[in-house]
Specification:
This protein is an alpha+beta fold and about 200 residues long. It contains 3 helices and 4 strands, in the order ααββαββ.
Length: about 200
Amino acid sequence: MIRINLLTVERSRTRRRIGFEPAQKAAAACSVVLLATALGIGWWFWTMRQERAALVQEIALAQTETDRLSGVLDQVRDFETRREQLQQRVALVEQLRQGQGQPVRMLDEVSRAIPEGLWLVEMIQDATGLTIQGRTTTLTALSDLIGNLERSGFFQLPVEMLDSQVEELTQGEVVNFSIRVQFLPPAAPVPATPPATQ
């Protein structure tokens, strides 16, 4: 059987307070701080791994570029070496081209200085100058040769007499001589400047 109490009896209701006690609040606060710290450390660790992966990729790209550029650098060095060799060759050719006319000019000046009754036997050019050996029938012709060479303006003064010997032949006397001169190459021609127009 079921009994129902129809009488309303006032019961004192006690209200329970919803909330946390101070110890629970402290524990919740510590939990929040620990959770935030764990999330912060996790985020930091994740970003560090991402940065590390990016740096590893950049290093690999830089190494690839370095390898590529080292090949290019070797090619540049080869080109520089070849360029220097070609410049040296061009300079040598230019030097030879400029000096090409000097022996011709020197021989021309020597041939102009030779007087009657004198002939040349040998001419040797070295670093010290031009050694001329020859023969003449008179000492006057030898002195004329030396004077002509000095007056030409193409030989450094004085003309040095190395040796002179008189040789007796059946037709008469011949003087064997040897002299040394220093050829002065003519100065490079100065290009003519056109007259100024007004």
